[in-house]
Every structure is written in structure tokens, then in C-alpha cells.
């Protein structure tokens, strides 16, 4: 494998994957991204001139532009990350999620299928299309103790998760009907450096440092499994290289926490550092508040990543505590990135949360 096309490489998980591939492998990386609000160019500034990095500003819904990218770069694999991913935005503005996550995936599949069909026999046999999905397609575990396993029934709750579920079904149908060699992964909640500030951990971090409230939906006891983004990037590469065609692999951090526990851990991490307190703030934890729950809010997600560990030998390197410390380190060391990213989403945060909020 010499050249990998990554869609959505300017986003949070995508940029972590691009950086991992350039640092830890010898492949060329083609980043296809239309650079929406959530794709921060600064995240990949350090590799902009890397000899193995190529950037194409293209919307995956634009078939002619996609075809030109495939013809120009001749990739050996596609890792499909491009997606609208913020649940709260999907509730207010679902059309963009259908356009990108569902229709965009269809256009990418058709482009990849035509390209794959025209390859010579050895390259056609080696080609892979990796669909990167989410545990949210499975819906709500509620109070049940089990974890999501590969092959479980889909029951999406939000426009976001429904659009990702539809994309997964298209990918699997293109495998069964046309023989396209696909792989599918489902990950749990990611966190780490370069995450956009509308998501839980960076949003709460920035609010805490500014002395603003830390609002949690409902009682704050919704449970998620937390996965450090660099561990996710390593897992995606492992699946691409060693996964069995047509199979699904779960990627989880084995770190279930309630949202309240996550925010309390973040506050404790900040308390343990020599940071100035905002005016009137005695302890960061005192900023935690509870607000009305959002519609259709799932109570618990939990991933069983045993198949990935057994078959490919992957396991997370970071615990939740070590990953959280590394995350805070990065944001504190990169205030200019934070400032520009937060400015880009300020209007949304104010309109949706009144300056607070989560996820």
C-alpha cells in the first residue's frame, strides 16, 4: 500500500489520522476535505509541505471533482471520515447531515467503485474502502449491562446517528451487490488534541478557564466510553492493513464514564495545575450546572472491542486519566488554535447554548 485517500482529513479524527500516517508509516496521504467550520486548517499546518502529503479541497458530494482526485492520485485505499458529526446541530439542522453523511457517502462509493473496477487484477485485489462509523448507530443501551457487539441491531436516535446508519448500510450493500472490498469500524466517544470546541471536553475546558458555567444535560449521568483520538488512529490503520474484507470492527477505549464524571475529572485536572482562577471562582467544579435535557438523548453507549484486540492485537495505549492530561496539555500549549477555533463556532454556541452547553 503506497497511497491512502482520507476523506475529512481536516477534522478532529481525520487530522489525527493524517498526522499518524505521516509520522508512523511510509504511505502518501491524500486529504480530501471541503473545510467546513469543523475542519481547522491549523491542525495540519505542520505537515502542509510534507512531501508525502497532498490536500484536495473537494466536497465528497461533487462526483466530477472526486473522480478527478481519484484519477490524479490513484489511491490504494480510502478511509472515509468526512461527516457532519455534532448531534445538537443535527437536531436543529438535519439537512446538512443527510447531504454529507448519506448522499456524500453514496457519491464516494460510486466513484470508488468505478475506479476500483478499472484497476489491474493485483491492485483491485489489494484495494480497500474503510467506512469509519460510530457506536451511536446502535441507539441506547439504557440500564442494560451489555456492550455493543459487531452485528448488533441498529436503532439510531438522532438525525446524526440515523444518517451514519444509512451510510453504513450503503457501504455494506456496495460490498454485497458489487463486490467492493469494504471494512467498517464503529468507535466510541473520541477526545484529545484539536477537537472542535462544541464538543464536551474542549467546551468545558474553555468555559472553565473563562469562569463560565459548565452546563450538563439532564442529570449528567449519561454514560459514554471514551477513546483517545491517537489510539483511534492506530486502530484504523491496523484495520485497514489486517482487517478481513466485509467485516466490522469496534474501537473503544474501555473507559466508561458519565458525563458528570468526565467534567469532574477535567475540573480536578485543572485544579492540580498552577493556573489562575477566573474572578469569583473558588473551584472549577463549582461552575457545574444542570440544564434541560436534549431531545432523544441516549442514556448509555458502551463498546466491546474484543474482536479488534483478538484479531489484530490492538489495544489503547492511553488510559482516560493519561489521555485527559495530554489533552489539557495540548490546549494550554496552543492558545492561538483555541482562539481561532472558538471564534469560528462562537455564534453557534451563543445561539444554541447561550455560551455554555455540551457536545
Description:
The protein is an alpha/beta fold and about 350 residues long. It has a domain of about 240 residues: Rossmann fold, CATH 3.40.50.720. It contains 12 helices and 12 strands. A 7-stranded parallel β-sheet has the order 3-2-1-4-5-6-10, with helices on both faces. It has a 3-stranded mixed β-sheet with strand order 7-9-11. A two-stranded parallel sheet has the order 8-12. α2 packs across α4 and α7 crosses α9. The radius of gyration is 20 Å and the shape is globular. The C terminus is likely disordered.
Question: Key terms for this structure?
Answer:
15% strand; three-stranded mixed beta sheet; 12 strands; alpha/beta; Rossmann fold; 44% helix; 12 helices
Compact overview of the structure:
Helices cover 44% and strands 15% of the residues.
